[in-house]
Amino acid sequence: MQRYIIRRLLLVIPTLLGVSLVVFTIVRLVPGDVISVISGDFGSSDKTSRDALLKEYGLDDNIPKQYVNWLGDVVRFDLGKSILSNRTVSSELKNRLPITFELGIMAIFFSMMIAIPIGLISAMRQDTAWDYIGRSFAIGLLAAPGFAIALMLITFASRYFIWGVPPKGYIHLTDDPVGNIRMLIVPAMLLGAGLAGSVMRFTRSTMLEVLRQDYIRTAWSKGLTERVIILRHAMRNAFIPVITVIGLQLPVIVGGTVIIESVYSIPGMGRYYIESVNNRDYPVIQGINLVVALVVVFANLGVDLMYSVLDPRIRYS
Amino acid sequence: MASSTTAATLEQYALQPQPSTPVRFRRGIIRFCRTKPLGAFGAVIVIMLVAMAFFPGIFTSQEPNPSPPPLAERYQGPSASHWFGTDNFGRDMYTRLVYGARTSITIGFGVVLISSVLAALLGVVSGYFGGWADMLIQRLVDIGIALPGLIFIILVVTTLQNLPVTLRIIMPVGILVALGSSRVIRGAAISAKQNQYVEAARVIGATDTRIIARHVLPNVMAVVIVGASIQIGGAVLVESALSFLGYGIPPPTPSWGRMLNESRQQLANYPHLVIFPTLAIFLTVYSFNMLGDALRDVLDPRLRGSR
Hints:
A: mainly alpha, B: 307 residues
């Protein structure tokens, strides 16, 4: 087990290198750069001032050299400075990361609340009306484009409910927890709705598989009630694989926050990410990319380890 | 007595003319519709969408981009002559939705073509051969999973300016989807490899290529087909999200996502401009998902059986 963990931790390194290298290279291939964005603000496109700025931000070197320089800073926990705001990337992220994190946790919570009961009932009553209604609902949530639903809610629901409105100012969790949650609940539900479909589908298929196992038949023939069979025997085993799906959904959540934070004007990391892409603010894009990759890699490692704790048959070596 | 009845029944059965292939095919479809009504519904919508993509003229007699635009008919609500109303240029929304199906279907099928072939290739090589090839491919998959999907796609779409935009969307989406789903195929390939008939094939001297083509691929195909149907739905959503953010198919080609993007400002006054494209995306993604789920129930041996 220990050896497995060490091996997995070592494998994190090539993954992070690969992810950062791909993004590092591709942002520099995107036409246009941050210097034009900055100098456009001042209405000047002077060659010498442009060269000076390029030099100041180390953008005059070739890409491999720039990458090595950036990597050297990263291993010293320095993500560099945002070119646009001239503040350090870590200080820019310090305020935004918790917001996106909170939104993501809430979204995962909502998706499980919807997906798991529906998945269970769907599997228990396969090919009945309950199955069709439940699945249609969960897949319907997945199929609805979240941004369009968000627009409709903002426009129409705001006539009836206060929470449909994108707020003028963001209410922080530490300032007013109730106000904060009231504000984030609708975006989180929209984000979670998209995930619910995949989690429901996975719950249903693992549950169907478990329900066909011999020990479930034994439980039936012992005369146990359906309640006991489902709760004690089937659910425990069906849930283990469901956890992995949540680990795999993390990048999807990040993509979702990019859109939902933009629509709802939530000052989180997702919105900052797309703004930085539009501004070609390379250090910020690289910084967020690295943070996201770290979270995804470690979440998946955590999920795999949890797997072996929950299911004693699985032992990694 | 009992045994003679059985023998007689068997004999009768054997003497009966076997149903021809079209008849069996028709019976299979009828059974699919009866046991999987949602999947059958999905299949009907999918067939309709594909028909719309190839022959939009069957579904509407109007032009998606009439020139000059009938500006006198701007912002009309749904009516008998314009079922879903008209947009800011007076163009018929129903017609634009019908023609928009081509964009969604092209991207959906394009993505799945790339992702299925690539995922099957990576998954089977990784699972069947194992060793260093597996190690290398799995690290690639790790990178693909940890990449921020939407941002990666946006970066690629903005970078490769000299390729047609459809291809710029299809390629990165297809590659990302392939990396993710190749892991499932790898699992299926590993379990297929452990079958005794594979061992037997190897004993009689079958080459790896032959074993893969004859024994491993057929076992993996169910996973590929089910995945493909669901991934088309996902690709349609990604295209609409990209167009909504302003990175998708440029005008005047009708695209559901861009129709949403263009009309978001008018939502309060002309809700039909947002509601109908949303419904189109919804119905498409829902149908591909339902079809995929039904195919999984039918094709996956672990879920087959009682009921």
